[in-house]
Amino acid sequence: MRRVFGSVRARAALGATVVVAVALVAAGLAVLQVLRADLVDQARLKARTDAREVASRIAAGTGYRALELDEDVPVQVVDEDGRVRAVSEDLEAVTGTGSPSVTPVGSGPGPDGGGDADDDGDGDDDDDAGQVSSEEEYGHGSARIDGETGDYVWAAVEVTDRRGVEVTVYAGAPLATERDAVSTVRDAMLIGLPLLLLVVAAVTWLVTRRALRPVEGIRREMAAITASTDLSRRVPEPGTHDEVARLARTTNETLAALEASVARQRAFVADASHELRSPVASLRTQLEVGAAHPELLDVDGAVEDVVRLQRLAADLLLLARLDAGERPHGGSPVALDALVREELAQRTGDRVPVRAEVAPVAVRGSRGQLSRVLGNLVDNAQRHARGGVRVAVREEGRWAVLQVADDGEGVPEGERERIFERFVRLDDARSRDDGGAGLGLAIARDVVVRHGGTLTVSAAPEGGALFEMRLPSG
Fold first, then answer.
1. How high is the pLDDT of residue 401?
2. pLDDT tens digits for 95-109?
3. Are 451 and 365 in contact (CB under 8 A)?
4. Which of 465, 446, 448 is nearest to 457 (CA)?
5. Residue 11 shares a structural domain with residue 123
6. CA 246 to chain centre
7. Are residues 125 and 5 in the same domain?
């Protein structure tokens, strides 16, 4: 049971059924209430009409015994003293009226047996006609007519007869029609509601099943991808333009990005292993030779290999932190012009001289990482320059711009993005010692991007490569 209602289809069908059931029950109760009120109003209207018709005849002078009240409408006429003056034929018992008696005064032996002098008159006398009240009152009760008892709504109308006597006319309308109609509608609802809910549940189940069929296909394919670890596979994309289709496209985009990331990671590990193997093998060879023949130990070469390993390890560690999403902490502004002067002050003995054209401009970020970017760009420029390197710093609007240009051969246009990839070296003919491991430019771009800027390469006026870093000034 838990598994069944754990599915989206079951929850959707159950939810839709509950909502429809609540709505139908509320609507049904409202319909029954309106129907009952309408039928009761109709019964009241009939009772009022009958009561006023009798009251009008009394006011016109018709005697109580001459009213000729038949059994179709239960009527009772009661005076101020509670005496029954007239009742309809076959009326055997009443409740809810002015008197429980159904025997008019003067209809039998007793003190009132003589009746009123004019009770059986026809109204042709000199007295003024009576008056019917403009208001009426309603009540509920019962009546037994010819042995059958039923519930009635009673309309009470006051009238003054031709002799000035005030009486109240009670006329009843049966409530059996109202109750029968309400009962019929209620029974129809009780029969139809479960059937309608079954239809709603079945339709919702089928529609939801059809709508979620692509989702199940996506789930199966993702499970297969997880089991096979084959990230080149893709989930099926339905031909619709709904949320499921967008989910499939987003899933495939995620798989593509994950595949590319894993490919880069594998290439990174392979390249790092390759780069580490050469200095480690060289260092091991030198140490083994030194252990066997101390006089042949190349201490300077061993130191260079250790330094190279140290730099490569530092580069790999920085790249790992950048891949993990490390971003520079906001701090004090970093003056790019001062950073350039400090970097160039340490390069007075380099093979290729570097001249600076700097203007005061500051950015926010990690001073150490930005110094690493500047050092990598200058190292790259000196490696490829013929006679000189130029470093310029200026401010353009809200951007701080740092440029490093050389007068070497430059970078072919088709390779200008590729040089920012890891372990990529365009000068393959050079030795690894001269060309580096191919991580400097990759590190530089990653650092700049995480500072909210850009790093691009183009042709320099001197004929070589022009690297331009743009960071938000601050």
1. 95
2. 999 899 999 986 544
3. yes
4. 465
5. yes
6. 16
7. yes
